[in-house]
Amino acid sequence: MGPLFCVVDNPVALHYYARLGRHVFALGPDATPEQVIAALKKDYSTNPITCAVYRLAAWKNQWHFAISPAQEVGVELKLIPQWCSDPHFSVSN
Q1: How many Å separate Cα 41 from the centre of its chain?
Q2: Could you identify which of 23, 36, 58, 87 might form a hypothetical disulfide with 63, taking C-beta atoms 3.0 to 4.6 angstroms apart as the criterion?
Q3: What predicted TM-score, i.e. pTM, was given to this entire model?
């Protein structure tokens, strides 16, 4: 399938993970952290899949929250610490 992230959208990854995280991907750029947390809990399947869903949706929607919704879900579901990090991108010219 290729890397999840690159300088341009990876339509194959977006299509694949949108099916697995339909509640998360239904949110838009103006979603609140609480909405993202609720959607992540509804879509939770495995740590790697749920993390990929969150990271792709956060990147697609340019979510920047003071406290990571992924970390909040990790605490609520008693997942291992730092189970999923927020995406950070630096594009060099």
Answers
A1: 12
A2: 58
A3: 0.84
Residue 16, token pair as written in the block: 């694949």
Query: Do residues 39 and 68 touch, judged by C-beta distance below 8 A?
Result: no
- Tens-of-pLDDT digits for all 93 residues of the chain? 555 555 456 788 888 999 999 999 999 999 999 999 999 999 999 999 999 999 999 989 999 999 999 999 999 999 998 899 888 765 554
CB 80 within 8 A of CB 46: no
Q: List the structure tokens of 36.
A: 């993202």
> Tokens standing for 18?
């949108």
Q: How far is Cα of residue 81 from the mean position of the Cα atoms in its chain?
A: 16
Q: What dihedral angle (degrees, nearest 10) is formed by the CA atoms of 68, 74, 77, 78?
A: -140
